[in-house]
Amino acid sequence: ALAMQDVPVDSDFSMTSGDFMEVYASNTGMWDAVVTCFFVDTANNVLEYIDLIENILTAGGIWINYGPLLFHYR
């Protein structure tokens, strides 16, 4: 397992609390990777989340999502 001491010192890693759509709206092309865990189901509109994730990724960036997509239960 990866531990914090294994993350390179010059890595730009962050975690932020708040409304995803508001916090990251101005981060256009800022992130090489976005990792989400049990997150997509929190969206009122999943397409807005997907659009924003695409917008904040750099060209060739990657989105890794782990967790169920349970929209059919709403």
The best one-word shape is globular
Largest sheet: 2 strands, parallel
Widest sheet: strand ordering? 1-2
Distance between the termini: 35 Å
Beta strands, count = 2
Q: Which regions are unreliable across 5 or more consecutive residues at pLDDT < 50?
A: none
Secondary-structure element order, as H and E?
A: HEHE
Query: What portion of residues belong to β-strands?
Result: 15-25%
Features:
74 residues; alpha+beta; two-stranded parallel ribbon; 2 helices; globular
Structure characterization notes:
With 74 residues, the chain is an alpha+beta fold. It is 20% helix and 23% strand. The chain has two helices and two strands. The chain has a two-stranded parallel sheet with strand order 1-2. Strand 1 (31-37), helix 2 (46-56) and strand 2 form a beta-alpha-beta unit.
Give a brief rundown of this model.
With 74 residues, the chain is α+β, with helices and mostly antiparallel strands.
Write the layout of secondary structure elements.
Layout lengths: L19 H4 L7 E7 L8 H11 E10 L8
